[in-house]
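User: Second chain of the day. Same drill as before.
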Amino acid sequence: MIDGCDVMVYRRRIPGLVRVLALIFITMIGLNGAAIPARADDTTPTPPVVLFHDDFTARADRWRLIDLSKASISYDPAALRLTAKPANYALWSIPDSDLKPTQFALSVQGTWTTGDDSALFGVVLDYQSDTDMTVVSIARDGTVRASAFYFGVLSDLAPSIKLTLDPSVAVTLHLVLSADHRLTITVNDQTAQNFKLSKFKAGQFGVFAQSGATGGISVAFQNFVVSDLP
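Assistant: Same format as last time:
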């Protein structure tokens, strides 16, 4: 009889133990399940893929240089400098890259040393030849232009806009060209233009400068970056 009682007690205790273990198991599942949404919500953006970058701190001779009596493209210790003496004189430099992206983000920093209010610097978007390219520029008076440069003449592709600008400090020019060729131009975090390029042809990229009406320009370019769009 004693043995029988022991068996009965043992049999009664088993269901209680099962309930305790089941409760622990369910609690563990609940805790783990609560943590899953937190991991799922971790949407850290993927950084853009850099296609080309040059901060000009190392003289790699990647850019086309010239040395003429009236103009020059040369390296500073940490910049690429474009200089011209005559009035309304344009010069540009294209790096040794075969990249011809159809969509991208591009940024560069420029600092004027000399130049009148109409002296400008900018970037080349789709270099086809020395007589055919698209240029986005900012003048010392704050005028932002997107232009076709064809046989030495700049023709605006959209109405220009004038921003408030301090030409004595560095200016950051940032562009985004989407897959449908919509171009967004930002200057020092100010959105200047947003329009669609109707005749975009994928080409090389580079830097550009043009002296003003009274002649003379010197501008230093720093931290040139081209990135793919996500």
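The longest strand covers residues 104-114.

User: Great, on to the next one.
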